[in-house]
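Sequence of LuxR family two component transcriptional regulator (Nonomuraea fuscirosea).
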Amino acid sequence: MTIRVLVADDHAAVRAGIVLILGGADDIEVVGEAEDGERAVAMAEELRPDLVLMDVRMPRLDGISATRALAGVCDVLILTTFDVDEYVFGALRAGAAGFLLKNTDAESLVEAVRVVARGEGLIAPGVTRRLIAAFAEQLPTRREPATDPAGLTPREQQVLACIGRGLSNAEIARELDMAEATTKTHVSRVLNKLGLKSRVQAAIYYSEGT
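Predicted 3D structure, token representation.
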């Protein structure tokens, strides 16, 4: 399956470099380029890519606001120069599926796109520890299944546990012996019931209660 990607960055040279890197992968197709957040949202709604590779600092509409606007449209992988907590936490609260720094090498960038496209979350290693600590303080406390205020079904509780272990949709489907399409439906329901916007938030929510 070809992964369709939209690249959003206000620097033409950066966009060209990212497109060149992604273009070298047989399973990735860059379907468009956007020079600002407003254009990124419009193009994503029109083209429906699998993933938007989004910069944070952009004119007209910043990357975090654009990510929030694209909730339910496609996955967003933030790619930025700035390892700043405000950006990391803001992006993930907005529903980004991952956060990566621009100093990553080409091979890691390509693999990051594949990881997010598989339905997994991805965070730059250097920010993971403080991210978990911060979200653990802010997300609702996880309850035991019998008193779960979100009303998760037993199957949804199993899916949440799998997300907490970092399993992809395909891996959850194999472990729980169900179709991958059914898995995606359960994941969406878990996020909706918990009031979360991404698998990353769900994993932190689960780990905070274990």
